Amino acid sequence: MRVWGWLARDEEGRFIRGGWEVFRAYWSAAATEAVEVRKVCTWAKEQGWSKVEVQTDALQVFSRVSEDNRDSYFDLIIDDIRHILQSEASFSVRFCRRSSNQATHVLA
How many domains does the chain have? Predict the structure, then answer.
């Protein structure tokens, strides 16, 4: 079982919404983080948001999103994220240190 948390803030940094989810994961921690980023991108797109910055403390996910390298099932998830980012020009993924991402860890 894995737990992940997320939160949404406006451009001023004010809290809009947050949540957490418990799920079974049969893959690596990096793939789990990639699934989380994909879920957040998909959710933000469904909400019709026009400017989104997804922050993740998973350096491997952040790095792979900007690379053109496909060598595993992990990269299929990354390809989904890239597709969402390409279809929503104002969406981005940014790396942040775990210490600055405490709010999501508290939610989880």
Answer: 1
- CATH no. for residue 9? 3.30.420.10
Residue 63 reports pLDDT greater than 60: yes
DSSP state of 12: T
Whole-angstrom distance, CA of residue 42 vs CA of residue 37:
9
> Could you give the CA distance from residue 9 to residue 53 in angstroms, rounded to a whole number?
10
What pLDDT band is residue 80 in, cutting at 50, 70 and 90? very high
Whole-prediction pTM: 0.70
Domain that holds residue 80: 2-107
Q: What angle do CA 31, 90, 100 make, to 5 degrees?
A: 55
Helix runs in 1-108, H state only: 29-46, 59-66, 73-87, 102-107
Instruction: Give the separation between CA 84 and CA 41, rounded to whole angstroms.
Output: 7
* 14 three-class SS: coil
Query: For residue 87, what are the contacts with CB-CB under 8 A and spacing of at least 6?
Result: 45
DSSP character at residue 99: G
